[in-house]
Amino acid sequence: MTDTDVRMTLNFILDSSWAKFGDQPAIGMAMERSLSYTELHHNVISLAVKLMEEGVGKGDHVAILAENSHCWGIAYLAIVRIGAIAVPILPDLPESDVHHILKEMGVDILFTSQRQVDKVYELKQQLKGPVVMLDNSTSPEGLLNAVTFSELLDQGTTLLAGAADTPVFPEVGEDDIASILYTSGTSGYSKAVMLSHKNLTSNAYSGSRLMELRPGDVFLSILPMSHTYEFSMGFILPLLTGCRIAYAGKSPTPAILQKLCQYEKPKCMFAVPLVLEKIYKKRVLPQIEKSKLLTLACKTDFGRKLIYRKIGAKLISFFGGELRFMGIGGAALNPEVEQFLFDAKFPYLIGYGLTEASPLIAGGPFADTTIVVGSTGKPISGVEVKIVDPDPASGIGEIYATGANIMIGYYEDQEATDEVISSDGWLATGDLGLIDEFGNLHVKGRSKNVIVMANGENVYPEAIEHKINSFHWVVESLVLENNGQLEAWVYPDYEFLDEVTSGKNRTDRRNYIEGLLDEMRGELNTQLSGSSRIARVFERREPFIKTATHKIKRYLYSSHAMVG
Predict the structure, then answer these.
(1) pLDDT tens, 303-357?
(2) I need a labelling partner for 12 at 20 to 30 A (CA). Which of 236, 264, 456, 462 fits?
C-alpha cells in the first residue's frame, strides 16, 4: 500500500487533523462544549478497539440509524477505522425500509437513538451484536440487547488504557468501501450505493477548494449526516480544514434555528432549498406585499435590488451575523428565490450532485463572477462533465461525469452498475442539462420526467413547477400530461387560506380557492410557450408523498390516478 493510498482514506484525514489541530474544538452539539480534535481522535480509537472486541472485522457492515450528533460522527469514524463498512440510514425512512436495509446488509451491530429504536424491535433475533443508543437512552427491558454509547465508549477506553501496545487495526486503503448508502430515489425503489474512502475524501478535498475556510470556523449542521451531501461537505470537509462542527440535532424550526445561529454565529452552513424557500415565502414576500411602497419600488430593477439588499442584511443577521458561505443543494432551488439571494448579495453557492458521485459534481467556486444565476456553477476540481446527445437547437442532453468521486457501483447489482457507469468510468446521471459559454452547468430536470408533446417539443415539468411554487400561497405542485395536454396539481398553503377566508362560508371559500387557481393559470401561461401551457389546474388537498430527501415520488402519480 502506497502513501498516496493512505492519504486518500478517512482515517488519514482524522489522523492528520489531530496532528495539526490538537486541542482546537472539533465537534459537538450546538450551544454545548465541543470535543477537541485530540478528544475526538481518542474516542474514535477507543470505540474502534471495542468494536474489534465485539467481533467486528474488515468488510463487516455496521449501521447507523439516528439523528445528527457528535456521537454519530465518532461511531462512523470508528467503524471505518477498522476497515468495516458504515451503513448510514436516513432517520426519516419508514420502518419497512429500515427492515429491508438491515436485512439486506446483514447488519449485526446497530447504532441508533430513542426516536428510531421502535423501528427495529422486530429484528431482535437478527441483531446479534449490541444495539448502541447514541443518545444514551435506554431500551425497554428485554426488548433489545441495548447498551448506551457512553458505556461502550468507556469499555473501549478501558481496553485501550490496559493495552501494552498501540492497537493494531486492519490496513485500510483508498479503494476499500467506506459506506453503503441507499438512495431515496423518485423512481420507485432504492439502490445501495458503494462509496470508497477515495470517493468520499476526494470530494471533500475538492470541496475545500470552493471557498476559503479557516481553522476554528464554525459549521452549523442542520441536514442529516446520513445524506452524502451533509456527510462529505458538512462533516469530512470541516474536519479536514480544522473547523468546528456544531450539530442542531433534529431538524430545527425557524425559531430554534435562529436561536442556535445567534449563539453559534456560524461561518458556514449547508442547506436544502426548502429552508431558503420557506424563509423567502414566509418572511421576505409578506414584508413586500404588505407595503404598497415596497411593492411599487420592486417593479424597478434599481428599487428591487436596493430593498433586497436590506432584506439580505437581515437574513444574514438571522443566521447569526457572521455567515460567510451557505451551500445549497440536494434539490433544485426555485429560480425566483435564487434571484432574490443574488440581488440581496447573500453569500450562497448552488451545488449539484448525486449519491453516486459522493455527491458533488458541480458548484462554484465561491465569488466567481462568471457564475450565471440558474446554473450550478463549474464542475468541481477533479471532476469532468460532458453533455451526451445534446439537442441541436437547445444544447440540452444527458449529464455525464467522471472523476475519483464516482461510486464503485451498486451493491450486488452489476447489471444496474453497468447501466450507469461506462467501461471508461463515466457516470450517466439521468439528469438533463447544458454547459454555457462560461463553463457553467445548467440542470434542466430528470430525463425520465421529460414530457414530449404532440408537436415534438420537450417540456421539462420541473421548470413549470418552479414557476407555480413561486406563488406565495402554493406549497408544492406536480405537472403531468393527460391526453396531449398539461395539467397541474397544486397543494396550497392552507394556513394562509384559513387567514384570508376567515369568516367566509364553505361556498365562498371554495370560490376563492378556485379563483386563485384560475388566476394563477392565466398568469402562468403568459410565461410559457404555446405547447407548454397548462390546460387545467386542480387543487390537491394533501401533501404529495415524498422521499426521505423531500423529493416528490413522481412514479406514484399519473394523470389517470390523481385524485383531489
Answers:
(1) 888 999 999 999 999 999 999 999 999 888 999 999 999 999 999 999 999 999 9
(2) 264
Residue 276 domain flag = yes
Q: How far apart are the first and last CA of the chain?
A: 60
Count of domains for the chain: 3
Residues 490, 217: Cα–Cα separation, whole Å: 41
Closest CA to 406 of 481, 470, 355, 336: 355
Rounded-to-integer distance, Cα 529 and Cα 154, Å: 65
pLDDT of 549 > 90? The answer is no
Residue 194 shares a structural domain with residue 304? no
Q: Characterise 34 by phi-psi region: left (phi > 0), alpha (psi -120 to 50), beta (else).
A: beta
Strands (E), 80-166: 85-88, 109-112, 131-133, 146-148
Contact 503, 509 (CB under 8 A): no
Pair 185, 553: CB distance under 8 Å? no
Our CA dihedral for 329, 334, 336, 338, rounded to 10 degrees, sits at 0
* 261 and 154 housed in the same domain: no
Give the integer Cα–Cα distance in Å for 52 and 31.
Answer: 33
What DSSP string runs through 380-421? PTTEEEEEES--TTT--EEEEEEETTS-SEETT-HHHHHHHB
Domain housing 383: 235-395+412-448
Residue 244 in domain: yes
Which pTM value belongs to this model?
0.90
**How many Cβ atoms from other residues are within 10 Å of residue 99's Cβ?**
16
Between 191 and 28, name the one with better pLDDT: 28
Mean pLDDT estimate for the chain = 91
Are the C-beta atoms of 257 and 276 separated by less than 8 Å?
no
Mean pLDDT of 242-255: 89
Share of the chain above pLDDT 90, in %: 71
**Other C-beta atoms within 10 Å of 551: how many?**
16
Residue 229 has which C-alpha cell? 451531501
Asked whether 123 and 99 are in contact (CB, 8 A), the reply is yes
Q: What is the pLDDT of residue 141?
A: 60
Last residue of a domain, one of 201, 221, 254: 201
* Phi and psi, residue 421, nearest 5°: -115, 120
Grid cell of 231 as nine digits: 456527510
Cα gap 106→272, rounded to integer Å = 32
Q: In what order do the strands lie in the sheet with 441-446?
A: 383-388, 397-403, 427-435, 441-446
